[in-house]
Amino acid sequence: MEDVLRIGGVGVDVLAATYGTPLYIYDQHAIEERMEDYRRYFHSDVLHCEVLYASKAFCIQEMMRLAKRHDLSLDVVSGGELYTALAAGVDPKRIYFHGNNKSPREIEEALQAGVGTLIVDNVMEGECLCAQMSQRTGEVHVLLRVNPGVTAHTHEYIVTAHDDSKFGISIHEQEAIVRLIERFSQTAGIVFDGFHAHIGSQIFEREAFETEIAILGRFLAELQHTYGIEAHSLDVGGGFAVRYTDADAPIPLPQLCQTITAACERQKQLHGLALERILIEPGRSIVAQAGLTLYTVGFQKQTAHRHYLFVDGGMSDNIRPALYQAAYACDVANRMNDPKTVRTCVAGKCCESGDVLIEEVMLPPCQAGDLLAVYTTGAYGFSMASHYNRLPRPAVVFIKDGQARCVVRRESYADLLRGEDVET
Ligand code: LLP
Question: Which Pfam families does the annotation name (predicted)?
């Protein structure tokens, strides 16, 4: 192995010298390959299968363009994500608009833009949509978000009858669901397609998805056989785990896709469902592993119990360790062959004790100016970045075929002031 880490054939030392640090670096080929893999493996002979990229994981125009190029649909959750998708030239018909509290204006914007599908999250939103549609022409497809009472997070999942989640209508509220679907059918321009559910994020257990789909299957059967309501589409959400550290063992993609398609086919057959189309919404698992964050090492200090290594970013560009105690792996990217002899705590530069990127990792002895690569930061890094402590947001580069391309420029100090002092 060379001493310097290379991404897509380009040394990170060259990238740091050209674009500065902190820097989000993406291997474009890895993103595209993952998109293709989803398209290839999420397949059924019985059901039409559609993959939506959950853009919240990493929402920039270039990602939207890649999704479009690889024939994925898009999940957006706000007017801002919608705006980004439209600006990138995504066909509005391929956009699915989520969110538990879309504003009437966002709904209006979506309808105006010709967004293909709205995922209605609660009764009030459904009523708001019906009111808006009765004032206009055109058509919008609707999926109703239901809550199957399965909550999964990383290695555990639970099934509850009572769910206090802010998302979706509980499948136990059947009357409210039936009434809402009746409202949809009475409103010109609304095409009710079926249901959506999402049970959590970074899920490792295939049984969680099998349980979700079995519960949804029974629910669809009840609606179909008791009320004559046919759901032609079922979106089972995203949440597929990725490997952040060696402790993580995600379900391989072919098996994951097969688990979902087989479970849906089984429910269709078991209950004689009218189901024709199934959808999934991966976000993290499309983009997390294709990205890393490159930092420059600054000062170090030794305390009684810890060796701190400070980097030039932190919780402002990756909030996940502070927010979720998320674990990451890293390397000193210009000393890939040096023996790892120092038990190190990697901390950021933000004014908060919790700004620790990696609690404990073995690293080679290093010095100021060395480069630290934190792996698997491609999802929910840039998209959850902030200006805390007035740190400008880092640049984003995509590497493909040995070529680096800056797709988001580094913010300047002037960018931080943009929008202030408007009255003066
Ligand atoms: N669909 C819906 C309705 C969702 O709410 C989400 C994620 C996804 C799809 C995509 O899930 P994914 O495949 O990316 O796990 N900020 C957190 C993750 C929040 C996920 C929210 N919803 C994190 O950094 O771990």
Answer: Orn_Arg_deC_N, Orn_DAP_Arg_deC
Q: What is the CATH number of domain 28-286?
A: 3.20.20.10
For atom 12 of ligand 1, the residue with the nearest CA is 239
Alpha-helical segments (H) within 272-383? 284-287, 320-324
What is the reported pLDDT for 151?
Answer: 87
* CB of residue 231 inside a 6 A radius of ligand 1: no
Q: What is the pLDDT of residue 336?
A: 98
The reported pLDDT for the residue numbered 161 is: 66
22 is in an annotated binding site: no
Residue 258 CB-density burial (10 A; 0-12 exposed, 13-18 middle, 19+ buried): middle
ipTM score here?
0.99
d(CA 43, CA 63): 23
The two beta strands, 6-7 and 10-11, are: antiparallel
Two structure tokens written together for 24: 């989000």
Beta carbons of 150 and 215 less than 8 angstroms apart? yes
What's the pLDDT at 267? 98
Identify whether the C-beta of residue 192 lies closer than 8 Å to the C-beta of residue 146: no
Q: What are the tens digits of pLDDT across the range 166-203? A: 999 999 999 999 999 999 999 999 999 999 999 999 99
Strands, DSSP E only, in 176-224?
Answer: 190-196, 200-201
Select from 8, 26, 17 the least CA-distant residue to 397: 26
Domain ranges of the chain: 6-22+291-377+394-411, 28-286
* pLDDT of 361 strictly over 70: yes
Q: How far apart are CA 387 and CA 408, in angstroms?
A: 16
What lies within 8 Å, CB to CB, of 402 at 6+ separation is 8, 9, 10
Distance CA 284, CA 364 (A): 30
Q: Which residues contact 244 (CB under 8 A, 6 or more apart)?
A: 288, 326, 327, 328, 329, 375, 376
Active site residue 351: yes
324 C-alpha to ligand 1 centroid (Å): 13
Extract the tokens encoding 336.
């890939």
Residue 424 has pLDDT above 70, yes or no: no
pLDDT surpassing 90 at residue 19: yes
Does ligand 1 come within 6 angstroms of the Cβ of 320?
A: yes
